């Protein structure tokens, strides 16, 4: 009996597929979960918008075209009149803890349906990511998550740590952990060569790891060795060398204290030349002119682990003071450093220095220390960053998290539409959508997401572009973005204007 029912239903499905194949635009009939009507669809590929209805069945886009309402039976209808429907945004570089704090409402409310963790060289520290992935599956996620394997994490797991040269066994161990975790679903390697212990790695080690990434069809996402204006070309060239073995990607592309459109164009031309030579290279940018990271970024490597800061600040005191004074001045002065946590949260280095009545370099040495706090650093130039954002192979990231004291974790994707599309018109709407959807999906090898297309996963947004507002500021960074009326994740309504939804519909996505 069961067999015959199963046979009949598969026959029905088969005939249904045959019917669609012969009549691709014919309105379908039957039961569906969600119908979006009267939509202006921006499909994520950069193509011109078009109108139509969308039907979703389970987690998949089942039909795009004109739907005859009398022929379908749907559980949830969204009238998208005067609104656009786009793919959910894919954040190419994000931070957060998918176990402890997985609601990720900050991402969802700015239209992000997939985030990319394990960045800057640091990922969940295990030789085997499988139990962690399974744990995440069971606790659930507010948005989809993918992960990279961190290079600094590999150095720690292999016992290489702060050595310049890994032993043969340590290098073999790094390669094997990377390979195994990519087999388990990680999308590639992330590097953070500006941070220790990744900082100590040399070309040979990076080349060996790049080969593993290439052999397993992954990509290298890189927080490069140094983003300062006088070092960035060297850093890009270092990454491009790895590009002989695997696709490479510049994370949060920026030029610290560099200025002007021409500078951006020159750096982009370096990437173009590499492409002519066959290197696959892309980048992401977040739309703010302040960076955010640990205060260690302003200290010299000789004052950081494994060196003992307590000893260094005595034995090399004058040298350290000179270094910090010069470095902070180069980074636009002490007004341009805004502390993000600890007792000085929300104060600039100048303000702390004034309130304690000691020079700022002494504040850094005696009060803060290289591991004492994190901060926002106003070190970027709007004209330069805008040219980077406009490049056709640059996608958008937030580099943000639910807890970071910087507006990018709550505002980035909304700011792209509010500022770059609506206000300055430096990006067209469908181009901006492409940079936040199909482009990052293609870069990272994320399948069946990032395009509004039949057979693709139903991660979708419904919104009026003119109503989008990023509300997060440097003073009050944890303010949710406004205007994304519906956020659909894996076919589920994850945000609606009618009710606050707290169910988690995101998945931990493994690389196929
Ligand atoms: Zn980074």
How does this structure look, described?
This protein has 512 residues and is of the alpha/beta class. The chain has 2 domains: 89-290 and 380-452, TIM Barrel (Alpha-Beta Barrel); 292-377, no CATH class. 35% of the residues lie in helices and 19% in strands. It is built from 16 helices and 20 strands. It has helices at 2-22, 105-108, 130-139, 151-158, 168-183, 203-215, 232-242, 261-276, 309-315, 317-330, 349-356, 360-368, 382-390, 408-423, 429-436, 438-444, and strands at 30-41, 50-57, 60-65, 72-79, 84-87, 89-91, 112-117, 144-147, 149-150, 188-192, 219-223, 248-250, 281-285, 291-294, 337-339, 374-377, 394-396, 460-463, 484-489, 492-495. The strands form 4 sheets. Strands 1, 2, 3, 4, 5, 18, 19 and 20 form an 8-stranded mixed β-sheet that branches. Strands 9-10-11-12-13-17 form a 6-stranded parallel β-sheet, sandwiched between helices. The longest helix has 21 residues, at 2-22. The chain is globular. The model is unreliable at 1-9 and 11-23 (pLDDT under 50). The structure holds zinc ion (ZN). Zinc ion binds at residues 120, 223, 251-252.
In the CATH hierarchy, the architecture of the largest domain is: Alpha-Beta Barrel
How many domains? The number is 2
Global morphology = globular
Number of helices: 16
Number of strands: 20
Secondary-structure topology with pairs:
Blueprint (H helix, E strand, L loop, with lengths): L1 H21 L7 E12 L8 E8 L2 E6 L6 E8 L4 E4 L1 E3 L13 H4 L3 E6 L12 H10 L4 E4 L1 E2 H8 L9 H16 L4 E5 L10 H13 L3 E5 L8 H11 L5 E3 L10 H16 L4 E5 L5 E4 L14 H7 L1 H14 L6 E3 L9 H8 L3 H9 L5 E4 L4 H9 L3 E3 L11 H16 L5 H8 L1 H7 L15 E4 L20 E6 L2 E4 L17
The protein binds zinc ion.
The site of zinc ion (ZN) has 4 residues, from loops.
């Amino acid at each position: 009996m069961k067999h015959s029912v199963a046979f009949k239903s598969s026959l029905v499905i088969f005939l249904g597929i045959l019917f669609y194949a012969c009549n691709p635009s014919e309105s379908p009939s039957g039961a569906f979960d969600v119908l979006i009507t009267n939509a202006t669809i921006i499909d994520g590929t950069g193509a011109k918008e078009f109108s139509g209805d969308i039907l979703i069945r389970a987690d998949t886009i089942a039909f795009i075209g004109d739907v005859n309402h009398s022929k379908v039976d749907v559980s949830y209808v969204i009238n998208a009149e005067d609104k656009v429907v786009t793919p959910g945004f894919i954040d190419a570089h994000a931070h957060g803890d998918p176990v402890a704090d997985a609601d990720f409402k900050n991402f969802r409310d700015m239209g992000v349906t997939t985030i990319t963790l394990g960045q800057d060289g640091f990922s969940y520290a295990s030789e085997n990511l499988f139990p962690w992935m399974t744990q995440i599956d069971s606790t659930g996620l507010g948005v989809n998550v993918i992960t990279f394997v961190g290079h600094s994490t590999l150095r720690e797991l292999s016992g290489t740590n702060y050595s310049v040269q890994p032993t043969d066994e340590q290098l073999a161990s790094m390669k094997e952990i990377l390979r195994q975790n990519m087999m388990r679903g990680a999308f590639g390697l992330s590097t953070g060569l500006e941070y220790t212990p990744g900082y100590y790695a040399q070309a040979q080690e990076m080349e060996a790891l790049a080969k593993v990434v290439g052999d397993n069809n992954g990509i290298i996402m890189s927080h490069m060795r140094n983003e300062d204006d006088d070092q960035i070309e060297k850093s890009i060239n270092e990454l491009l060398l790895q590009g002989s073995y695997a696709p490479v990607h510049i994370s949060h592309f920026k030029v610290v204290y560099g200025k002007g459109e021409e500078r951006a164009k020159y750096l982009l031309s370096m990437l173009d030349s590499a492409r002519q030579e066959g290197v696959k290279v892309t980048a992401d940018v977040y739309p703010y002119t302040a960076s955010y990271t640990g205060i260690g970024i302003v200290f010299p490597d000789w004052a950081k682990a494994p060196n003992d800061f307590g000893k260094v600040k005595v034995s090399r005191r004058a040298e350290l003071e000179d270094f910090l004074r010069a470095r902070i001045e180069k980074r636009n002065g002490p007004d341009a450093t805004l502390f993000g946590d600890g007792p000085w949260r929300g104060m600039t280095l100048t303000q702390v220095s004034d309130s304690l009545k000691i020079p700022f370099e002494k504040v850094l040495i005696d009060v803060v220390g290289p591991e004492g706090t994190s901060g926002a650093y106003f070190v970027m130039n709007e004209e330069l960053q805008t040219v980077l954002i406009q490049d056709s192979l640059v996608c958008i990231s937030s580099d943000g998290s639910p807890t970071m004291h910087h507006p990018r974790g709550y505002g980035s994707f909304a700011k792209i539409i509010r500022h770059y599309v609506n206000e300055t018109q430096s990006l067209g709407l469908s181009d901006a959508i492409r940079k936040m959807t199909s482009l990052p999906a293609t870069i990272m090898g994320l399948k069946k997401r990032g395009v509004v297309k039949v057979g693709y996963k139903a991660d979708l947004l419904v919104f009026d572009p003119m109503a989008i507002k990023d509300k997060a500021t440097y003073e009050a960074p944890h303010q949710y973005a406004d205007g994304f009326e519906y956020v659909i994740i894996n076919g589920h309504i994850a945000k609606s204007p009618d009710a606050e939804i707290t169910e988690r519909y995101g998945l931990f996505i493994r690389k196929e």
